[in-house]
Amino acid sequence: MTENYAVVVIGGGAAGLSAALVLGRARHRTLVVDAGEPRNAPAAHMQGYLTRDGMPPTEFLALGRAEIARYGVELARDRVVEVTRAENLGGVRGKNFTEVQGRAFTEAQGEDPTRAPSEDPTGAPSEGFAGTPGEEFTVVLAGGRTVQARRLVVATGLKDELPAVAGVAERFGRDVLHCPFCHGWEVRDQPFGVLASSPASVHQALMVSQWSKDVRFFLHTVAEEELSDEDLRRLAAAGVEVVPGEVAGLVVEDDRLTGIRLADGTEHARSVLFLAPRAVPQTGLLEGLGAELHDTPFGAYPVVDATGLTTVPGVWAAGNAIGFAEQVVHAASGGYRAASAIVGDLLMTDLDAAAQV
After folding, report:
1. Which domains does the chain show, CATH number per domain?
2. Across the chain, which distance is largest between two alpha carbons, in Å?
3. Most buried in the list 268, 292, 320, 329, measured by CB within 10 Å?
4. What is the number of alpha carbons within 13 Å of residue 28 lying toward its C-beta?
5. DSSP result, 215-259
6. What is the C-alpha to C-alpha distance for residues 129 and 117, in angstroms, rounded to an integer?
7. 145 three-class SS
């Protein structure tokens, strides 16, 4: 039997759990589907979150799961593989969208049996469906479970695609880092390297100079001619040394980064390497539902309003699903905003429906 929920939250990181907490406290039957792939998994600690500074990400998530459970929110350790948005309550299924390798494809669907609201075994009122076009969703999980929801929160985050330099992936989150706000204090005053992936990497080299006065900017595959005169002036003013040449790999001794090796064999003693991974937004489900995206230098993200509402009625997005620079604290805030908006939206929808009876 298909289970009915007021809201299904896709993603169990900071954004998804925060949204679920608000929804649970508002007495809405909520399901969180968590594939267990948080972006900050490589990091031993998360920083800069007031009262949670230095907490391991795994501990943070465990606390969040315990909190939502207190309000009856259900957690499924699973992955959403299919989301269907109905065009009306007569049971005619709209387009069917299946996520395959992070992307979505469409296929025509026929009619679907009329779906009736289920009754909550706890005795709480059934959530049912409001009947507004585009506001009923069928969600299929990889484990075979199928559920229905009136609203969706998509908090699927993004993946970091690392440069193809030997040793980088193994040390990412340890002494190969991407965010000075997340890790700068812990590695302050050590010899830094910054790996260029584009001329825009100049910004990262300048930023990290606030945590160390010994910074070398490895151009790697970027030609020095690609840097502007302004870039070079600022790098010089910050005391950042520009190092031409492709980086071939890392020098590691006793499980610690000790240097950067160039393709010509030259080695530079460094204890920390900053780089900018290529952001790969996990927008397959949103694209499949027809959400409008906008291009940024860090990938394409859904167009959303101030609450995270996408261009698809009934679908909100939060956290790194809507932007590259969302820190954990930002993601939690975004989940809260989305859930608050959903609570009001469901209330007004039900009141309007009742007034028409």
Report:
1. 3-158+278-355 (3.50.50.60), 163-274 (3.50.50.60)
2. 79
3. 320
4. 29
5. EEEE-TTS-GGGS-HHHHHHHHHTTPEEE-S-EEEEEEETTEEEE
6. 7
7. coil
SS3 124: coil
Burial of 50 (0-12, 13-18, 19+ CB in 10 A): exposed
**Cβ-based neighbours of 305, under 8 Å, separated by 6 or more:** none
Q: What is the model's pTM? A: 0.84
Q: Residue 118 and residue 27: Cα distance in Å, rounded?
A: 16
Contact 127, 28 (CB under 8 A): yes
Q: What would the two tokens of residue 154 be?
A: 């998509």
Q: Tokens in use for 225? A: 């001619």
Nearest-angstrom CA–CA distance, 224 and 232? 9
Looking at the chain, list the stretches that DSSP marks H as alpha helix, in order from N- to C-terminal side: 14-25, 57-69, 168-171, 180-183, 201-208, 229-237, 284-288, 328-355
Which H/E stretch holds residue 309?
none
Could you give phi then psi for residue 28, rounded to 5 degrees? Answer: -100, 135
Residue 224: CB partners within 8 Å, gap ≥ 6? Answer: 242, 244
Yes or no: say if 134 and 314 are a contact pair by the CB < 8 Å rule: yes
pLDDT in tens for each of the 357 residues of the chain?
679 999 999 999 999 999 999 999 999 999 999 999 998 889 999 999 999 999 999 999 999 999 999 999 999 999 999 998 986 433 223 333 333 223 222 222 233 322 233 333 333 333 433 333 335 899 999 999 999 999 999 999 999 999 999 999 999 999 999 999 999 999 999 999 999 998 889 999 999 999 999 999 999 999 999 999 999 999 999 999 999 999 999 999 999 999 999 999 999 999 999 999 999 999 999 999 999 999 998 999 999 999 999 999 999 999 999 998 889 999 999 999 999 999 999 999 999 999 987
Determine how many CB atoms are found less than 10 A away from the CB of residue 123.
Answer: 6
Question: What is the C-alpha to C-alpha distance for residues 303 and 28, in angstroms, rounded to an integer?
Answer: 26
CB 128 within 8 Å of CB 4: yes
The structure tokens listed for 110 are: 């026929």
